[in-house]
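Q: Here's a chain of 655 amino acids. Please give me its 3D structure as tokens.
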Amino acid sequence: MLSLRYFIFSVFTIACLGFGAQQAGAQSSRAVCILPNGDLLLVGHKDHVPWMAIHTATWVEQPNPDDAPAKGEFTAACTDRLGNLYLAFEDEGDPKKDVHGLLQRVNGAWSALPALPRGWSSIYDPVALGPDAIWFRSWHDTERRSVMVRWDGKTYSELSLPPGTKEMHALLLDADGTLIADGDMNNDAGAYRFVNNAWAPMGEAMDGMHVDRFVYLSDGTLVCNVARSSYSEAKTALYRWDGNAWKPLKGADVPIKQDVEDLCAGPDGRLFLLIEAGDEAGDPQRLACWKDDRLRWYKGTPESAVQKDFSGMTHLYNLACDRTGLLHARTYRAMVTFPWAEFDRAMDGYPQQDASAAALWSLFQRLEPDYYTKTAALIKAYRNYNVASNEANSKRVSSACAALKTWAGAAMDSVERIAPKRTNRLADRFGTALELWRKSAEGMSAQVAGKAAGKDEEEQDRLETQTVLALGNLRDAQELLDAELEAYAARNALAARVLPASYATRDGYPAMDDRAAEVFAAEQANIAEWNAFMGASNGWVHHIGTSRNAATGLVVLQDIRDNYRPWMLKEKARMEALGIPPDRNRLYDAYMKALLEGMYLMNTIEALGEIITGSYAHETYNEAVERFHDAHREVNYAVQQLEGLIPAYRVRHGL
């Protein structure tokens, strides 16, 4: 498709992670859990003194219970359905050996449970039905193995591990209070229920090393993540339990060699994921959310989902959603939050629907007439200046540059007040085009001023090159803007834009072109051949316009007579067969003008080629070269006009 890009051309890194409001945090945070009322509890230590805070609307530090150690830290926390709270701690008061234990708050009163039996150290993943039914994982220092522990209100007892299991990683209480744990299943990941004092397998094995965590979604679906080894070809990272078997979670296609480190449920079936990509330097983490059977990456793409702060990688732990559905995660020193809107984005990094869509759409339609009027005025002035670099044309370029720069600055301010960057596609596309127009205008101004000041030829070439590069970037930006204009209204459920009446009547054509869709289809039908002709003509400029080589002349003559002249005559006849009267269709007249100029260009090339090959000597070589260059400028001008009207033509007629 021909676009404004050709019309124009013919003449930051991954966003840093915004942490939001940093709450007062522990020097080292260790775990976060969700309380029955929806509050979040964060535990850790401050200067090696146990510390905890609760989040309702903000994080509020809580006093330590009397039984908490004077030196040490809280390492884990859980609650039961009655709201009783259980804190695992590490007591560092004895310089010879750290002591691990549990505190419980039952009916508002704190007390300490007895010390763990000899040889057991650390408390992981505590879960509780009540003060007389607490389970957790521990570690046997001497025997170097996992230990499954139950507290029955009086004593600790060790439970056997699932068959063949040497190390456990995940515990969960089922909806009916049954304990669920991971375990080995023929050297693959498995899940087990503890029923009648024995472990019963839940379905067959899953493809992976072990389960890391079990989670219930808001609709009651049980899901889990499976650790996959770096050398494994296991494709599934997330499974759901269908009541009889574990099935891959539909649409949760986490790439191979990227492990789901943590997960938590949110409202409306959301499953937030913390993913570590172990195949890249620094093991960067990514945030994603599974919803409606697909992954939604943080800020839209896997690249933007990488967690970084201004000093490098940011390591996150323990995802948790508060009562409002806001996602929290802990770093080593603080809690950070991630709004749902940052996940509800398309793969281009923008929201599914553009922010402030209606307001921006209305503003753009008010700005659009001036945008095309002022940019067209600048292009016209610059084109005339390139044809004749006199004082009058220099002033026209300078005046058009100044007018566009001033207008573009005000337009950009208006756009940014409505839609901040990365929230609205049209705002960013339009803003980019405006900024590049300003740079192009500055380049044109510098080029004109340099020539007026008598800059040497090298400096003038440099200034012209800068302008051409800016126009090339602008060509690409304009194509993106054109594409966005085609999709914007439908995506945001808005009425299609209506072009001002001034677009339709000032050029002497009817408001709506005759047989618009038919002409557009005909003009676009052979666009590849037309582009090939323009590319060939640029090659002729290089080969014949800079050389008097007879062999080159013969090759060019044969190319024209065998390929391009027959095509051009056939194309002209094809368009004429439409029977469109003059001044009734803008696109038809502009395309026919471009065809006629193309044929004239071929005539001048043939004349020049015949002089070079010695078969024609009616005029001097220099005269033929001048005619050839004039013809080449005219065909470029015709193409500029053709391409300049296409965007508005398509919009006007809904094409």
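Q: Can you summarize the key feature?
A: Residues 1-26 have pLDDT under 50 and may be disordered.
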